[in-house]
Amino acid sequence: MDEKTGTNEGYVLTPWVASGNIDYDDLIVRFGTSRIDQGLLNRIEDLTGELHFMLRREIFYSHRDFNWILDEYEKGNHFAMYTGRGPSGHTHVGHLMPWIFAKWLQDKFDVELYFQLTDDEKYLFNFDMDQETTHSYALENALDVIALGFDPKKTHIMIDTDYIKTLYPIALRVAKRLNFSNVKAVFGFDNSVNIGSIFYTSIQSAPCFVPTELKGRDVPVVIPCGIDQDPHFRLTRDVASKIGYCKPALLHNKLAPSLDGTGKMSASIPKTTIFTTDEPSDVKSKLSDAFTGGCISAKEQREKGGNPDICAIQNYRYYLFEEDDEVVADISMRCRQGEILCGECKSLLIHKVNTFLERHKKGREKAKDIIDGLLLID
Ligand code: TRP
Protein backbone atom coordinates (compact mmCIF):
# COMPACT_ATOMS: atom_id res chain seq x y z
CA MET A 1 0.00 0.00 0.00
CA ASP A 2 1.18 3.47 -0.80
CA GLU A 3 -0.36 6.19 1.32
CA LYS A 4 0.47 9.12 -0.83
CA THR A 5 -0.36 7.95 -4.31
CA GLY A 6 -3.81 6.59 -3.56
CA THR A 7 -2.79 3.09 -4.52
CA ASN A 8 -3.67 -0.04 -2.60
CA GLU A 9 -4.42 -3.65 -3.45
CA GLY A 10 -7.97 -2.87 -4.57
CA TYR A 11 -7.53 0.17 -6.78
CA VAL A 12 -5.20 2.74 -8.25
CA LEU A 13 -6.12 6.41 -8.45
CA THR A 14 -3.66 9.04 -9.61
CA PRO A 15 -4.27 12.06 -11.87
CA TRP A 16 -3.43 9.81 -14.82
CA VAL A 17 -4.66 6.35 -13.85
CA ALA A 18 -7.95 5.16 -12.41
CA SER A 19 -8.51 1.42 -12.13
CA GLY A 20 -10.11 -1.14 -9.88
CA ASN A 21 -12.86 -0.49 -7.40
CA ILE A 22 -12.12 2.99 -6.09
CA ASP A 23 -12.78 3.25 -2.37
CA TYR A 24 -13.74 6.88 -1.86
CA ASP A 25 -13.91 6.67 1.93
CA ASP A 26 -10.43 5.21 1.95
CA LEU A 27 -9.20 8.14 -0.19
CA ILE A 28 -10.34 10.66 2.42
CA VAL A 29 -8.08 8.93 4.94
CA ARG A 30 -5.22 8.29 2.52
CA PHE A 31 -5.14 11.82 1.09
CA GLY A 32 -5.99 13.43 4.42
CA THR A 33 -8.99 15.44 3.20
CA SER A 34 -12.19 16.23 5.13
CA ARG A 35 -15.62 14.81 4.46
CA ILE A 36 -18.32 17.30 3.48
CA ASP A 37 -20.34 16.73 6.65
CA GLN A 38 -23.84 17.74 7.64
CA GLY A 39 -22.57 20.93 9.30
CA LEU A 40 -20.94 22.11 6.09
CA LEU A 41 -23.99 21.10 4.04
CA ASN A 42 -26.23 23.12 6.36
CA ARG A 43 -23.93 26.08 6.02
CA ILE A 44 -23.99 25.89 2.21
CA GLU A 45 -27.77 25.51 2.21
CA ASP A 46 -28.19 28.52 4.50
CA LEU A 47 -26.17 30.66 2.11
CA THR A 48 -27.58 29.37 -1.19
CA GLY A 49 -31.15 28.45 -0.29
CA GLU A 50 -30.84 24.91 -1.66
CA LEU A 51 -28.42 22.03 -2.02
CA HIS A 52 -27.26 20.98 -5.44
CA PHE A 53 -28.08 17.35 -6.13
CA MET A 54 -24.37 16.53 -6.33
CA LEU A 55 -24.04 17.66 -2.70
CA ARG A 56 -27.21 15.88 -1.58
CA ARG A 57 -25.99 12.64 -3.17
CA GLU A 58 -22.43 12.94 -1.85
CA ILE A 59 -21.01 13.07 -5.38
CA PHE A 60 -19.15 16.13 -4.14
CA TYR A 61 -18.19 14.51 -0.89
CA SER A 62 -14.79 15.72 0.29
CA HIS A 63 -13.04 19.07 0.71
CA ARG A 64 -10.10 21.02 1.99
CA ASP A 65 -10.74 24.31 3.78
CA PHE A 66 -14.14 25.07 2.24
CA ASN A 67 -15.28 26.39 5.62
CA TRP A 68 -12.55 29.01 5.35
CA ILE A 69 -13.85 30.02 1.90
CA LEU A 70 -17.30 30.55 3.40
CA ASP A 71 -15.85 32.46 6.39
CA GLU A 72 -14.16 34.85 3.97
CA TYR A 73 -17.31 35.08 1.86
CA GLU A 74 -19.34 36.05 4.90
CA LYS A 75 -16.79 38.76 5.66
CA GLY A 76 -17.34 40.14 2.17
CA ASN A 77 -14.11 38.76 0.72
CA HIS A 78 -15.45 37.01 -2.35
CA PHE A 79 -13.62 33.94 -3.58
CA ALA A 80 -12.74 32.89 -7.10
CA MET A 81 -13.12 29.41 -8.57
CA TYR A 82 -10.56 27.51 -10.54
CA THR A 83 -10.96 24.24 -12.39
CA GLY A 84 -9.63 22.73 -15.60
CA ARG A 85 -9.33 19.99 -18.12
CA GLY A 86 -6.55 18.18 -19.91
CA PRO A 87 -7.47 18.37 -23.62
CA SER A 88 -6.66 14.82 -24.70
CA GLY A 89 -9.78 14.46 -26.83
CA HIS A 90 -13.38 15.57 -27.03
CA THR A 91 -15.20 16.28 -23.79
CA HIS A 92 -17.27 13.43 -22.43
CA VAL A 93 -20.28 13.85 -20.21
CA GLY A 94 -18.32 12.71 -17.13
CA HIS A 95 -16.08 15.77 -17.50
CA LEU A 96 -19.13 17.99 -17.31
CA MET A 97 -19.87 16.89 -13.74
CA PRO A 98 -17.57 19.27 -11.84
CA TRP A 99 -18.24 22.01 -14.39
CA ILE A 100 -22.02 21.79 -13.93
CA PHE A 101 -21.39 22.06 -10.22
CA ALA A 102 -19.05 25.02 -10.73
CA LYS A 103 -21.77 26.75 -12.74
CA TRP A 104 -24.13 26.32 -9.79
CA LEU A 105 -21.52 27.80 -7.44
CA GLN A 106 -21.03 30.72 -9.83
CA ASP A 107 -24.76 31.38 -9.92
CA LYS A 108 -25.19 31.11 -6.17
CA PHE A 109 -22.12 33.01 -5.00
CA ASP A 110 -21.69 35.30 -8.01
CA VAL A 111 -18.01 34.49 -8.38
CA GLU A 112 -15.47 34.44 -11.17
CA LEU A 113 -14.32 31.22 -12.76
CA TYR A 114 -10.80 30.62 -14.03
CA PHE A 115 -10.60 27.57 -16.29
CA GLN A 116 -7.28 26.01 -17.30
CA LEU A 117 -6.86 23.90 -20.44
CA THR A 118 -3.59 22.02 -20.09
CA ASP A 119 -2.52 21.39 -23.67
CA ASP A 120 1.06 21.19 -22.36
CA GLU A 121 0.14 18.44 -19.89
CA LYS A 122 -1.48 16.25 -22.51
CA TYR A 123 1.44 16.80 -24.87
CA LEU A 124 3.95 15.80 -22.18
CA PHE A 125 2.09 12.81 -20.77
CA ASN A 126 0.61 11.30 -23.94
CA PHE A 127 3.40 10.14 -26.11
CA ASP A 128 1.32 9.96 -29.26
CA MET A 129 -0.15 13.48 -29.14
CA ASP A 130 1.39 16.40 -30.98
CA GLN A 131 1.11 20.05 -30.01
CA GLU A 132 -1.35 21.05 -32.74
CA THR A 133 -3.73 18.31 -31.64
CA THR A 134 -3.71 19.15 -27.94
CA HIS A 135 -4.16 22.84 -28.74
CA SER A 136 -7.08 22.24 -31.07
CA TYR A 137 -8.78 19.97 -28.52
CA ALA A 138 -8.28 22.75 -25.97
CA LEU A 139 -10.32 25.09 -28.17
CA GLU A 140 -12.96 22.38 -28.70
CA ASN A 141 -13.18 21.71 -24.96
CA ALA A 142 -13.48 25.45 -24.26
CA LEU A 143 -16.71 25.43 -26.30
CA ASP A 144 -18.12 22.79 -23.96
CA VAL A 145 -17.29 24.90 -20.94
CA ILE A 146 -18.91 27.99 -22.41
CA ALA A 147 -21.95 26.00 -23.59
CA LEU A 148 -22.86 25.23 -19.99
CA GLY A 149 -23.90 28.85 -19.58
CA PHE A 150 -21.26 30.36 -17.33
CA ASP A 151 -21.52 34.14 -17.03
CA PRO A 152 -19.27 35.33 -19.89
CA LYS A 153 -18.29 38.45 -17.95
CA LYS A 154 -17.09 36.34 -15.03
CA THR A 155 -15.45 33.46 -16.84
CA HIS A 156 -11.84 33.33 -18.00
CA ILE A 157 -10.38 30.44 -19.93
CA MET A 158 -6.65 29.93 -20.29
CA ILE A 159 -4.93 27.53 -22.66
CA ASP A 160 -1.52 27.03 -21.07
CA THR A 161 0.61 27.62 -24.16
CA ASP A 162 -1.36 30.81 -24.95
CA TYR A 163 -1.16 32.30 -21.45
CA ILE A 164 2.31 31.21 -20.50
CA LYS A 165 3.73 34.69 -19.96
CA THR A 166 1.45 35.12 -16.96
CA LEU A 167 1.62 31.52 -15.79
CA TYR A 168 5.36 31.02 -16.04
CA PRO A 169 6.65 33.42 -13.36
CA ILE A 170 4.10 31.99 -10.89
CA ALA A 171 4.96 28.42 -11.90
CA LEU A 172 8.62 29.19 -11.30
CA ARG A 173 7.91 30.31 -7.75
CA VAL A 174 6.14 27.00 -7.13
CA ALA A 175 8.82 24.95 -8.89
CA LYS A 176 11.59 26.48 -6.84
CA ARG A 177 9.98 25.13 -3.66
CA LEU A 178 9.18 21.63 -4.91
CA ASN A 179 11.83 18.93 -4.84
CA PHE A 180 11.97 16.00 -7.21
CA SER A 181 11.55 13.77 -4.18
CA ASN A 182 8.23 15.48 -3.22
CA VAL A 183 6.87 15.05 -6.72
CA LYS A 184 8.16 11.49 -6.97
CA ALA A 185 6.53 10.50 -3.70
CA VAL A 186 3.16 11.94 -4.63
CA PHE A 187 2.93 10.68 -8.21
CA GLY A 188 5.08 7.57 -8.09
CA PHE A 189 7.35 8.77 -10.93
CA ASP A 190 10.49 6.82 -11.76
CA ASN A 191 13.65 7.89 -13.55
CA SER A 192 12.22 7.20 -17.00
CA VAL A 193 9.66 10.02 -16.77
CA ASN A 194 10.34 13.02 -19.02
CA ILE A 195 11.46 16.17 -17.23
CA GLY A 196 8.48 18.20 -18.45
CA SER A 197 6.19 15.92 -16.47
CA ILE A 198 8.22 16.50 -13.33
CA PHE A 199 7.79 20.26 -13.74
CA TYR A 200 4.14 20.06 -14.72
CA THR A 201 2.56 20.34 -11.26
CA SER A 202 3.91 23.87 -10.99
CA ILE A 203 1.95 24.81 -14.13
CA GLN A 204 -1.27 23.30 -12.77
CA SER A 205 -0.61 25.19 -9.52
CA ALA A 206 -0.19 28.59 -11.15
CA PRO A 207 -3.89 29.39 -11.78
CA CYS A 208 -4.52 29.06 -8.03
CA PHE A 209 -2.64 32.32 -7.70
CA VAL A 210 -3.63 34.06 -10.95
CA PRO A 211 -6.71 35.78 -9.40
CA THR A 212 -4.52 37.24 -6.66
CA GLU A 213 -2.01 38.49 -9.24
CA LEU A 214 -4.67 39.94 -11.54
CA LYS A 215 -6.61 41.69 -8.78
CA GLY A 216 -3.62 42.79 -6.76
CA ARG A 217 -5.07 41.49 -3.49
CA ASP A 218 -5.37 38.12 -1.75
CA VAL A 219 -8.22 36.33 -3.47
CA PRO A 220 -9.34 33.06 -1.81
CA VAL A 221 -9.64 30.32 -4.42
CA VAL A 222 -11.66 27.11 -4.36
CA ILE A 223 -11.08 24.32 -6.85
CA PRO A 224 -14.02 22.01 -7.63
CA CYS A 225 -12.42 18.92 -9.17
CA GLY A 226 -12.28 15.14 -9.28
CA ILE A 227 -10.50 13.76 -6.24
CA ASP A 228 -7.90 12.27 -8.61
CA GLN A 229 -6.48 15.81 -9.00
CA ASP A 230 -5.91 16.26 -5.27
CA PRO A 231 -2.24 15.14 -5.33
CA HIS A 232 -1.29 18.16 -7.46
CA PHE A 233 -3.00 20.57 -5.15
CA ARG A 234 -1.61 18.98 -2.02
CA LEU A 235 1.79 20.02 -3.36
CA THR A 236 0.46 23.48 -4.25
CA ARG A 237 -0.90 23.90 -0.74
CA ASP A 238 2.41 22.83 0.77
CA VAL A 239 4.25 25.65 -0.95
CA ALA A 240 1.57 28.39 -1.04
CA SER A 241 2.42 30.22 2.14
CA LYS A 242 6.15 29.94 1.50
CA ILE A 243 5.69 31.99 -1.68
CA GLY A 244 3.24 34.47 -0.17
CA TYR A 245 -0.14 33.17 -1.31
CA CYS A 246 -3.21 31.71 0.44
CA LYS A 247 -3.62 27.95 0.16
CA PRO A 248 -6.29 27.02 -2.41
CA ALA A 249 -9.35 25.26 -0.99
CA LEU A 250 -10.82 22.21 -2.72
CA LEU A 251 -14.16 20.52 -3.28
CA HIS A 252 -13.72 16.96 -4.51
CA ASN A 253 -16.11 14.87 -6.56
CA LYS A 254 -16.23 11.14 -7.13
CA LEU A 255 -15.50 10.17 -10.71
CA ALA A 256 -18.34 9.49 -13.12
CA PRO A 257 -18.88 5.77 -13.70
CA SER A 258 -18.41 4.11 -17.08
CA LEU A 259 -21.17 2.42 -19.04
CA ASP A 260 -19.69 -1.05 -18.73
CA GLY A 261 -20.26 -1.00 -14.98
CA THR A 262 -16.57 -0.81 -14.10
CA GLY A 263 -14.26 2.05 -13.20
CA LYS A 264 -14.53 5.63 -14.38
CA MET A 265 -15.71 6.95 -17.68
CA SER A 266 -12.64 7.17 -19.86
CA ALA A 267 -12.08 8.91 -23.16
CA SER A 268 -9.77 6.10 -24.20
CA ILE A 269 -12.67 3.63 -24.27
CA PRO A 270 -15.13 5.39 -26.59
CA LYS A 271 -17.73 2.62 -26.58
CA THR A 272 -18.42 3.04 -22.87
CA THR A 273 -18.21 6.82 -22.84
CA ILE A 274 -20.61 9.44 -24.20
CA PHE A 275 -18.98 12.46 -25.79
CA THR A 276 -20.70 15.84 -26.11
CA THR A 277 -20.11 15.59 -29.84
CA ASP A 278 -21.83 12.19 -30.21
CA GLU A 279 -24.78 11.87 -32.56
CA PRO A 280 -28.17 10.71 -31.21
CA SER A 281 -27.59 7.33 -32.89
CA ASP A 282 -24.23 6.92 -31.04
CA VAL A 283 -25.92 7.71 -27.74
CA LYS A 284 -28.63 5.19 -28.52
CA SER A 285 -26.21 2.40 -29.35
CA LYS A 286 -23.88 3.08 -26.42
CA LEU A 287 -26.68 3.24 -23.88
CA SER A 288 -28.39 0.22 -25.41
CA ASP A 289 -25.19 -1.79 -24.87
CA ALA A 290 -24.63 -0.57 -21.32
CA PHE A 291 -24.25 -2.92 -18.39
CA THR A 292 -27.46 -3.14 -16.34
CA GLY A 293 -28.73 -4.94 -13.28
CA GLY A 294 -31.34 -6.78 -15.31
CA CYS A 295 -32.02 -10.53 -15.59
CA ILE A 296 -31.38 -12.77 -18.56
CA SER A 297 -34.99 -12.90 -19.71
CA ALA A 298 -37.89 -10.45 -19.46
CA LYS A 299 -39.94 -13.18 -17.80
CA GLU A 300 -37.37 -13.71 -15.07
CA GLN A 301 -37.02 -9.98 -14.53
CA ARG A 302 -40.78 -9.50 -14.17
CA GLU A 303 -40.74 -12.19 -11.49
CA LYS A 304 -37.53 -11.42 -9.64
CA GLY A 305 -36.91 -7.73 -10.42
CA GLY A 306 -33.61 -6.10 -11.37
CA ASN A 307 -30.77 -4.61 -9.35
CA PRO A 308 -30.51 -0.84 -9.89
CA ASP A 309 -27.53 -0.58 -7.52
CA ILE A 310 -25.15 -2.09 -10.04
CA CYS A 311 -26.80 -0.65 -13.15
CA ALA A 312 -24.81 1.77 -15.32
CA ILE A 313 -27.99 3.31 -16.70
CA GLN A 314 -29.28 4.15 -13.25
CA ASN A 315 -25.82 5.41 -12.28
CA TYR A 316 -25.84 7.84 -15.18
CA ARG A 317 -29.15 9.20 -13.96
CA TYR A 318 -27.88 9.44 -10.43
CA TYR A 319 -24.60 11.18 -11.26
CA LEU A 320 -25.67 13.46 -14.05
CA PHE A 321 -28.96 13.22 -15.81
CA GLU A 322 -31.71 13.28 -13.19
CA GLU A 323 -31.79 16.01 -10.60
CA ASP A 324 -35.04 14.88 -9.04
CA ASP A 325 -34.39 12.43 -6.19
CA GLU A 326 -37.95 11.16 -6.31
CA VAL A 327 -37.68 10.17 -9.97
CA VAL A 328 -34.46 8.26 -9.25
CA ALA A 329 -36.03 6.49 -6.27
CA ASP A 330 -39.18 5.68 -8.20
CA ILE A 331 -37.27 4.06 -11.07
CA SER A 332 -35.17 2.04 -8.61
CA MET A 333 -38.30 0.82 -6.88
CA ARG A 334 -40.06 -0.13 -10.10
CA CYS A 335 -36.92 -1.89 -11.28
CA ARG A 336 -36.67 -3.96 -8.10
CA GLN A 337 -40.33 -4.92 -8.39
CA GLY A 338 -39.93 -6.03 -11.99
CA GLU A 339 -42.34 -3.33 -13.20
CA ILE A 340 -39.90 -1.56 -15.48
CA LEU A 341 -37.62 -3.58 -17.73
CA CYS A 342 -34.22 -2.57 -19.09
CA GLY A 343 -35.44 -1.68 -22.59
CA GLU A 344 -37.93 0.90 -21.36
CA CYS A 345 -35.54 2.24 -18.76
CA LYS A 346 -32.80 2.67 -21.34
CA SER A 347 -35.16 4.49 -23.75
CA LEU A 348 -36.05 6.98 -21.04
CA LEU A 349 -32.38 7.78 -20.49
CA ILE A 350 -31.54 7.85 -24.21
CA HIS A 351 -34.24 10.47 -24.65
CA LYS A 352 -32.97 12.47 -21.69
CA VAL A 353 -29.32 12.41 -22.80
CA ASN A 354 -30.16 13.27 -26.39
CA THR A 355 -32.34 16.18 -25.29
CA PHE A 356 -29.48 17.43 -23.16
CA LEU A 357 -26.94 17.04 -25.95
CA GLU A 358 -29.17 18.76 -28.49
CA ARG A 359 -29.27 21.84 -26.27
CA HIS A 360 -25.59 21.53 -25.44
CA LYS A 361 -24.65 21.43 -29.13
CA LYS A 362 -26.61 24.63 -29.76
CA GLY A 363 -24.72 26.14 -26.82
CA ARG A 364 -21.43 25.06 -28.42
CA GLU A 365 -22.39 26.79 -31.66
CA LYS A 366 -23.23 30.02 -29.84
CA ALA A 367 -19.99 29.69 -27.86
CA LYS A 368 -18.04 30.08 -31.10
CA ASP A 369 -19.25 33.68 -31.30
CA ILE A 370 -18.11 34.65 -27.82
CA ILE A 371 -15.08 32.45 -27.13
CA ASP A 372 -12.59 35.19 -28.07
CA GLY A 373 -13.85 37.38 -25.26
CA LEU A 374 -13.35 34.62 -22.67
CA LEU A 375 -9.86 33.45 -23.57
CA LEU A 376 -6.95 34.84 -21.59
CA ILE A 377 -4.09 35.29 -24.00
CA ASP A 378 -0.79 37.03 -23.38
N1 TRP B 1 -4.92 17.74 -14.95
C1 TRP B 1 -6.29 17.93 -15.29
C2 TRP B 1 -6.73 16.83 -16.27
O1 TRP B 1 -5.96 16.06 -16.75
C3 TRP B 1 -6.55 19.27 -15.88
C4 TRP B 1 -6.59 20.39 -14.87
C5 TRP B 1 -5.76 21.48 -14.86
C6 TRP B 1 -7.47 20.51 -13.78
N2 TRP B 1 -6.10 22.29 -13.81
C7 TRP B 1 -7.11 21.74 -13.13
C8 TRP B 1 -8.52 19.74 -13.28
C9 TRP B 1 -7.81 22.17 -12.00
C10 TRP B 1 -9.20 20.18 -12.15
C11 TRP B 1 -8.84 21.39 -11.52
O2 TRP B 1 -7.89 16.77 -16.60
Model description:
This protein has two domains: 191 residues, 3-Layer(aba) Sandwich (Rossmann fold), CATH 3.40.50.620; 95 residues, Tyrosyl-Transfer RNA Synthetase (Orthogonal Bundle), CATH 1.10.240.10. It is 51% helix and 11% strand. The protein is built from 17 helices and ten strands. Strands 3-4-9-8-5-6-7-10 form an eight-stranded mixed sheet. It has a two-stranded antiparallel sheet with strand order 1-2. Helix 5 links the parallel strand 5 and strand 6. Helix 8 packs across helix 10, helix 10 packs across helix 12 and helix 15 runs parallel beside helix 17. The chain is globular. The chain starts with 10 loop residues before the first strand and ends with a strand. The structure holds tryptophan. The site of tryptophan has 12 residues, from strand 5 and strand 8.
Strand percentage lies at 5-15%
Let me know the largest β-sheet. Answer: 8 strands, mixed
Order of helices and strands: EEHEHHEHEHEHHEHHHHEHEHHHHHE
Indicate the percent of residues in helices: 40-55%
Keywords:
378 residues; alpha/beta; Rossmann fold; Tyrosyl-Transfer RNA Synthetase; 2 domains; 8-stranded mixed sheet; globular; binds tryptophan
Q: What's the short version?
A:
This protein is α/β, with parallel strands linked by helices. The protein is 51% helix and 11% strand.
Question: What is the strand and helix layout of this fold?
Answer:
Blueprint: E1 11-13, E2 18-20, H1 24-31, E3 34-35, H2 38-48, H3 53-56, E4 60-64, H4 66-74, E5 80-85, H5 93-109, E6 112-117, H6 119-125, H7 131-147, E7 155-159, H8 164-177, H9 180-187, H10 195-205, H11 210-215, E8 221-226, H12 230-240, E9 249-253, H13 280-288, H14 298-304, H15 312-321, H16 325-336, H17 342-374, E10 375-376
Parallel strand pairs: 5-6, 5-8, 6-7, 7-10, 8-9
Antiparallel strand pairs: 1-2, 3-4, 4-9
Helix pairs in contact: 6-7, 7-17, 8-10, 10-12, 13-17, 15-17
Bound molecules: tryptophan.
